[in-house]
Amino acid sequence: MRKGIPLSVFVFLAIVYYSVVLPHPSGAEERRFIKMSTTTSTENSGLLDVLLPLFTGVTKIDVKVFAKCTGAALRDGIKGNVDVLLVHARKREQKFLADGYGAYRLQVMHNDFVILGPARDPAGIKGIKDAVAAFRMIALRGVKFVSRGDDSGTHIKEQELWEATGLKLKTKMTRIVKNGKIKSLIFRYPGGLGCFEMKGAGWRKWRKRP
């Protein structure tokens, strides 16, 4: 069977159009563009290169895309800088709605997270399908762990997994520099873990944590 664009994505774009583009009772003019914050992984996937021309072709509305980590995208929404968010951190999204910053949430896609490591498998987790159990073994064996450490959806999921292990966690404050701005982040991980933290999503600069 031929694979096409998921119906949920078209529904998502249609709702965006009717909620943002159509004239409001106040008599304001139609907007000729909308702004969307989304994750770098969504942009890098090429999905938007397929969807947005279709959306613009039907509605004559352009979409300005701002690609960044999930945390930063949510902050764009909180500040009212964008009209639409396409992110991946369910609990943070639900809190976003509960706090009154969004009208509704649609599940468009889902993520598959994979734990990667060296071929020699120092943590002994090869073949384990339970991510929480794998994280617990990584911590108990004190092997090195590389984290995005940037408040992205991947980093948020990692933090949820550490919490789920039931292990005693240390809380550290770390700072990252992005677009010339210094941002403080809370980072939690088990004591005794040979933990490395990546600075931002660039995958080039990283340092050993104390």
Write structural notes for this entry:
It is a single chain. This protein has a three-stranded parallel β-sheet with strand order 2-1-3. A three-stranded mixed β-sheet has the order 4-7-8, with no helix packed on it. Strands 5-6 form a two-stranded antiparallel ribbon. The chain is elongated. By secondary structure, the protein is of the alpha/beta class. Strand 5 and strand 6 form a beta hairpin. It folds into two domains: 92 residues, D-Maltodextrin-Binding Protein, domain 2, CATH 3.40.190.10; 78 residues. The N terminus and C terminus are likely disordered. It is built from seven helices and eight strands; from the N terminus they run αβααβαβααβαββββ.
How do the strands and helices of this protein lay out in sequence?
Layout: H1 7-21, E1 33-39, H2 40-45, H3 47-59, E2 62-68, H4 70-79, E3 84-86, H5 90-98, H6 131-140, E4 144-147, H7 153-164, E5 169-178, E6 181-190, E7 194-198, E8 206-208
Parallel strand pairs: 1-2, 1-3, 4-7
Antiparallel strand pairs: 5-6, 7-8
